[in-house]
Amino acid sequence: MNKEELIERCGIHGIIHDGDMFLLIKRSPDDENDPGCWDLPGGGLDKGEEIFAGYMREVEEETGLRIKNSALIGSYTSDDGRLQLCVISDFGAGEIQLSREHTEYKWVSEEVLKSIKPAGLHLIAAQYFVRTKKKIIKYGDLAPMGQAEHQDEKRERDGN
């Protein structure tokens, strides 16, 4: 992937809450990114797509839910250099219907949200934002939150 493609493809993932409970979704075991890990709904924005419209589209595709009152809480870069945005949203409406990319979901307390494992990259970043209240982080900043383990697991899956 060249630099222009990285700039054009921004990711957005978010914490969805309903009262004091937070939604987590589990990636399928055959997913190429963080298989079997708990993560947050979201995905890549299409070229030219408005940030929150793209996020709402991704959430609906992955969970069947509609959300409201979304706010940006931070940004980070993934291991491939892509810009990633993290938002928080209120549950709006709908019944959960997971996409084939995910196998399970659960609503958890803030304490569980902060510590659940195995966690995918986007959940690790959100855990960091929630714990530290920082708004911008680099990929390397995630190491204390389990990112080293994340990279080891990824290398093992990729055969490197």
Defining key terms:
Nucleoside Triphosphate Pyrophosphohydrolase; alpha+beta; 31% helix; 32% strand; 5 helices
Describe the structure.
- This protein has helices spanning 3-8, 51-63, 110-115, 121-132, 147-158; strands at 11-18, 21-27, 38-39, 42-44, 66-77, 83-93, 102-108, 136-137.
- It is α+β, with helices and mostly antiparallel strands and 160 residues long.
- The protein has a single domain (3-154), classed as Nucleoside Triphosphate Pyrophosphohydrolase (Alpha-Beta Complex), CATH 3.90.79.10.
- The two termini are 19 Å apart.
* Alpha-beta content class: alpha+beta
Count of separate structural domains: 1
Gyration radius, rounded: 15 Å
N-to-C CA distance? 19 Å
- Count of DSSP E strands? 8
- CATH-defined fold name: Nucleoside Triphosphate Pyrophosphohydrolase
| CATH classification class | Alpha Beta
State the fourth-level CATH superfamily.
Nucleoside Triphosphate Pyrophosphohydrolase
Spell the H/E element sequence: HEEEEHEEEHHEH
- Poorly predicted ranges: 143-148
Please estimate the helix content: 25-40%
The shape is: globular
Write down the overall mean pLDDT. 84
